[in-house]
Amino acid sequence: MKSLICSFKSHRSLTGLYVLMAGLFVPSLAMADDLSAGDTAWMITATVLVLFMTIPGLSLFYAGMVRSKNVLSVMMQCFAITCLMTILWILYAYSLAFGDGGSMNGFWGGFSNALLANMSVDSMSGTIPESVFMTFQMTFAIITPALIVGAFAERMKFSAMLLFMAVWVTIVYAPICHWVWGGGWLGSKFAILDFAGGTVVHINAGVAGLVACIVLGKRKGYPTTAMPPHNLALTLIGAAMLWVGWFGFNAGSELAADGTAGMAMAVTQIATAMAALSWMFAEWMAHGKPSALGIASGAVAGLVAITPACGSVGPMGALVIGLASGFICFKAASTLKRKMGYDDSLDVFGVHAVGGIVGALLTGVFSATTLGVFSGQGLADGVTSIGGQVFNQSVAIIVTIIYCGVLSFIILKVIDAVIGLRVSEDEETEGLDLASHGERGYIL
Amino acid sequence: MKLVSAIIKPFKLDDVREALHEIGVQGMTVTEVKGFGRQKGHTELYRGAEYVVDFLPKVKVEIAIAADQVEAAIEAIIKAANSGKIGDGKIFVSGLDEVVRIRTGETGSEAL
Asked: Does B43 touch chain A (CB under 8 A)?
């Protein structure tokens, strides 16, 4: 992801005049950060699409999978996260992630752009206004915490959830985002390929989810009590919205309307469809029936896996990434948590972390230009072999897992000691809709 | 007077109502119920997690009729509710001590 932010402070009419003159007389000398109307139009659209992924997409995807007494609680959590992250992002988190941290820039972006102090109507980020770049990145900071909700669904206190998310986005998401995309040490020391957020978004959210569901403990009655999804129609609608919105996420991460964005769109579609079929057929063979939840989960697994890859792999690479992620995530979601004994309610780890890891590793393979029909557009600058790229990808994966895992654990333990993480047993039995929000999702 | 309770498959309700209407049954009470017999429940599978659903949805039709109507009513219900597959349901017949029509206070067969 491009992250160059330039302040372009000149009078608007003068800027317009300059652009006009440049266009007429010396087009080849046009400044690098001239505003491109095409790029800007696409990035405004992409930003809206990514917001659409969280509300309503992810909200519905999760809402359908919980029991009817908790349907509002997960939708409410996604909605509240959207609002809270928006405010934290503009107050300081955007500066932490994409600011210039000076001598400490390897680790964080500092507070120089807190309160969006340096952002004016003329500020540019590449060929788009910084306001668009800032809002686009904000939607990523919204969906990443919202993804974690699925892991601790049906048992976390609303207040503890808000507190956890606020701290988490500050000391986990913003720094990792800076390391990979904001000019920090991971992106500059190790030439990694993470086009749209395999590590920053999906492995990050998946690992935080795993830690959260382990620290919180299992839902009351799990795994002996049946906790089937209460409305898979909602889940399928949500998955479909995630799929549509994901084009903003992946093709938008080019920050421009160009060939790379176009290819990102194509490979996203290919990997998603392949992963959905892969999960469906794997389940059909293993359990005798192709399920609606299975095909929707497979689509999300494919979307996750193609996310880091979509800026550098080709169509046939995408096909393999889809095939692998659908099958591996099916295995992870249907067997891993039962074998390991944790209660990741909606399989955030099994789909997002596992899919993210599969995608990040395979990005290192299928970006290579030496694979014939499976070739991609090339490895990261300075990397000469698939092995070298896969090594760099592994470093990013491991750093994310360790940093996110350890800090998430500490944040949760501290919150647990101060205000408690879980609702009471009675409230859990009653359902969070009534217990936490005083409302019911369904009055039939 | 007899009380006939028939547990049937939900989608057979309209057929049963029609068949009973044809033999002159004047009214009935219908309840959505759950239960199991020889058909047992079924299993559902969500991302590899298997849930056994023990109780299947059925409809209970209750009719209060004169004793001499019972044969015809049973025959009508069997004909209408039989799909030939396991899970078609059962008919229970029991005696009825008293019937009262609330509006008029009529009792016994007058009230049927």
From this structure: no
**Which of A30-34, A279-283, A332-336 has the weakest average pLDDT?**
A30-34
Structure-block tokens of residue B60 = 């209970």
Helix (H, G, I), strand (E, B) or coil at B53: strand
Mean pLDDT of A308-336: 97
**Beta strands per DSSP E along chain B:** 2-8, 29-35, 42-46, 49-53, 56-65, 89-95
Q: Out of A228, A289, A333, name the one closest to residue B48 (CB).
A: A333
Q: Is the pLDDT of residue A400 over 90?
A: yes
ipTM comes to: 0.75
> Residue A108's CB: how many other CB atoms inside 10 A?
19
- How far, CA to CA in Å, does A74 sit from each of A144, A155, A255, A256, A441? 15, 10, 31, 34, 11
Helix (H), strand (E) counts: chain B: 2, 6
pLDDT of residue A15: 41
Name the residue of chain A whose CA is nearest to B47's CA: A334
Chain B residue numbers with beta carbons less than 8 Å from the beta carbon of A335 are 48
pLDDT tens, residue by residue, B22-80: 999 999 999 999 999 888 888 888 988 888 888 999 999 999 999 999 999 999 999 99
Confidence of residue A106 (pLDDT cuts 50, 70, 90): very high
Asked if the C-beta of A285 comes within 8 angstroms of chain B's C-beta atoms, the answer is no
Q: Which helix (H) or strand (E) holds A78?
A: helix A71-88
Nearest chain B CA: its distance from A368 CA (Å): 34
pLDDT tier, A121 (very low <50, low <70, confident <90, very high otherwise): very high
Residue whose tokens read 């988490």 = A168
User: Cα–Cα distances in Å, from B77 out to A18, A194, B6, B86, B93?
Assistant: 88, 67, 8, 16, 12
- A335 to B51: CB separation less than 8 angstroms, yes or no: no
Which residue carries 């469906």 as its tokens? A280
For A94, the token pair is 């955007």
pTM for the predicted model, two decimal places: 0.87
Name the closest residue on chain A to residue B52, using Cα atoms: A226
